[in-house]
Amino acid sequence: MNALRHSIATLIALAALPGAAFAQSQAQLRVSAHMSSGVVKLGSALSLIVDVEGANEATIAPAPHVDGLNIAPFGDPSTNTFFSIGRGGQTVTHSFTWHAEVAPQKTGAFTIPSITVHADGRDLATRELEFRVVEDIKGEEFGLFEVDVPTQVVEGQPFALELRFGWDSALDQKLNYANLSLPWLGEIAGLVELDAPASAPGASYVELNLNSRERIRAERIGPVTQNGRTFQVLRVRKRYIASRPGKLEFATSHFEFGQIAERNIFDTRPPVRDTYFKRFPAFDVEAARWGTSAHTPAPTAATSTRAIRSSSRSSGRATATSSSSTRPIRRTSTRSRASACTERPTARPSTGAR
User: Fold this and answer.
1) What is the spatial distance between Cα 277 and Cα 109, in angstroms, rounded to a whole number?
2) For 339-350, how does the pLDDT look when each residue is reduced to its tens digit (9 = 90+)?
């Protein structure tokens, strides 16, 4: 009976997806790519990651050449095989993942050209990837970045992800620019985005830059005080569903905020920046196959295992402690792709929620 309830709930969730997302959930051939971070300090390395899902065999073209970057050759791919139950019974899918180390040689904005992958007789192309190399990643103490996400989900079961980020209120008068760097957004193999949770009545929103090339709307949730500092905090909420079991890997995120000198349209020089960065380390969410000993209780609108992960100065992937009930575990700390386009300063958000 539990298995039947799960199958019905999974089919309802998948049937509600848009056409493209539903096709993805049915293990269609798909290629994605992302950088391990959207911002990196000069002297540090990062990774270029390419994934192919739904192929029986796949090969990748040589790594591209980009002036100012040393990009190592792709090694042999890591492979995984997944078994899923969907329309038409059980399906078997394969995934291939390649990594290439990227060592920047100078500061600036960089674009990784599209990379071709040959899979099951077809040529697939990744989208272009953009990231920035800076002299210094400063100002961790002036920012706040938290993520509320389950540590484990079940394939076919919707779950929520909430990003909360903000800046020290003392910077309000100097702030005219904000950019949320989420290199993983839309590029995680095995993850399908659903409609966002409904907004609360009377919620107030502000727009900011997303990945230096798009815009995103974030909800004001008012000031928060931590460690003697008061932060103006925004949040972005997402809903997802895991289309197959396995590890879902979220790359390092950054919230950049501060001041950029505005220039007229005839000035082609790079804008003068005085900005700070708040980093959130990479983290994983484990998607369990339904029917295994690792699965959680019967699916509902949200998972029962939740954790709040917060940025720190330590390197490596984020860690989290989960609970076995709906009560969250809080771990807080305030220490711690497309082609390039012209960045637009945001209007300075007000200093409080309305």
Assistant:
1) 16
2) 223 333 343 443
